[in-house]
């Protein structure tokens, strides 16, 4: 990161923007666009504050803590003039069919973005390489790179840059790639030419709203995170509300239902990034097998994975819910009984609930 150095405004920024986009594609980004950081964000800011006021962010206190800094780039990185947004496909090759795993009942479904290496590290490293290239071309160059790593409204900036439009499930959609991709940004003071936003192509479709297992999408473009399975299995650190546990099924880390049913995802592309390939058979592992992992096994096998961020106890909590929702069998009941007296009160509570489902 570089900040607060006077800028040479005599540079040919139109040509530079073209070069930056070419470099971005060479570095593995499928698309790269530029938005004006000074655009009017007051409607977005108003919606954000209303969302926070309603408590839809749940226990994600950092959302409220940073507040409007998300909509004001210059408050996060002084001098920011442009937001360079990038996207990178993540659907891994040879992964088991998602619907087949979800419907199996006794297999663990893990959101397809989390089957490989932690995307935060991958995207930030590539963005840094892109920033290094820019710095070699034009000096001084003030910037900061992000990938879901700071108070940045990624979807909003990606939408304003023309990478896609916000779908009714609140994720970014692209006519060329659906929604199965990661986003990243570079905040910069370079006065680059900006790209045009595109219109929405969701039309009257409501498939993402209709299929949500917990009805977390309470209206088009409105998500109550407190009901979202991704929030419940990843962000929520405490007990999962009992009324929602049966609705989670075997989804133990994230939920892709709203994406899987989206017609635009017929255009989702398989990733070329080896880092996002399936590791340790996580695309089709059994609930019982994963539940048997010790903390040491969890830490070892998931080193470098985004899943490791939730920790072993939360992992067991999620798996216990999945086992509680699975069809009864001696194997499942024995696996749960083996952790009936787990050291963690959180794990014990969910194990005991799961065992009650098999009476």
TrEMBL record:
Record localization: Cytoplasm
Binding sites annotated in the UniProt record for tRNA: 237, 313
GO biological process, one term: tRNA queuosine(34) biosynthetic process
InterPro entries given in the database record: 4Fe4S_Fe-S-bd (IPR017896), 4Fe4S_Fe_S_CS (IPR017900), QueG (IPR004453), QueG_DUF1730 (IPR013542)
Pfam families: Fer4_16 (PF13484), QueG_DUF1730 (PF08331)
Residues the record lists as binding [4Fe-4S] cluster 2: 212, 228, 255, 258
Main function: Catalyzes the conversion of epoxyqueuosine (oQ) to queuosine (Q), which is a hypermodified base found in the wobble positions of tRNA(Asp), tRNA(Asn), tRNA(His) and tRNA(Tyr).
Listed name of the protein: Epoxyqueuosine reductase
Species lineage: Bacteria, Pseudomonadati, Pseudomonadota, Betaproteobacteria, Nitrosomonadales
């Amino acid at each position: 990161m570089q900040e607060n150095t006077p800028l040479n405004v005599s540079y040919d920024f139109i040509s530079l923007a073209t070069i930056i986009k070419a470099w971005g594609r060479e570095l593995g980004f499928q698309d790269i666009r530029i938005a004006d950081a000074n655009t009017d964000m007051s409607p977005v800011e108003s919606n954000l504050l209303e969302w926070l006021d309603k408590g839809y962010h749940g226990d994600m206190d950092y959302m409220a803590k940073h507040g409007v800094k998300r909509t004001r780039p210059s408050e996060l990185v002084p001098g920011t003039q442009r937001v360079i947004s990038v996207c990178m496909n993540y659907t891994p090759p040879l992964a088991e069919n998602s619907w087949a795993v979800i419907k199996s009942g006794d297999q663990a479904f893990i959101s397809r973005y989390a089957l490989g290496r932690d995307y935060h590290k991958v995207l930030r490293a590539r963005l840094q390489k892109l920033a290094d290239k820019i710095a070699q071309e034009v000096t001084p160059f003030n910037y900061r790179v992000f990938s879901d790593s700071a108070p940045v409204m990624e979807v909003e900036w990606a939408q304003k840059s023309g990478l896609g439009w916000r779908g009714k499930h609140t994720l970014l959609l692209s006519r060329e790639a659906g929604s199965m991709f990661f986003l990243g940004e570079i905040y910069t003071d370079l006065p680059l030419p900006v790209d045009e936003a595109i219109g929405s192509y969701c039309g009257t479709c409501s498939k993402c709203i209709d299929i949500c297992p917990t009805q977390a999408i309470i209206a088009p473009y409105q998500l109550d995170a407190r009901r979202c399975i991704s929030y419940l299995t990843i962000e929520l650190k405490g007990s999962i509300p009992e009324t929602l546990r049966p609705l989670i099924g075997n989804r133990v880390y994230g939920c892709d239902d709203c994406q899987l049913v989206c017609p635009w995802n017929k255009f989702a592309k398989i990733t070329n990034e080896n880092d996002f390939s399936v590791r340790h058979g996580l695309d089709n592992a059994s609930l019982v097998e994963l539940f048997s992992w010790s903390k040491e096994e969890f830490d070892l096998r998931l080193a470098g994975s985004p899943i490791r961020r939730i920790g072993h106890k939360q992992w067991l909590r999620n798996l216990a819910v999945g086992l509680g929702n699975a069809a009864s069998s001696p194997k499942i009941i024995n696996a749960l009984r083996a952790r009936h007296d787990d050291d963690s009160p959180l794990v014990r509570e969910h194990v005991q609930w799961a065992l009650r489902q098999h009476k």
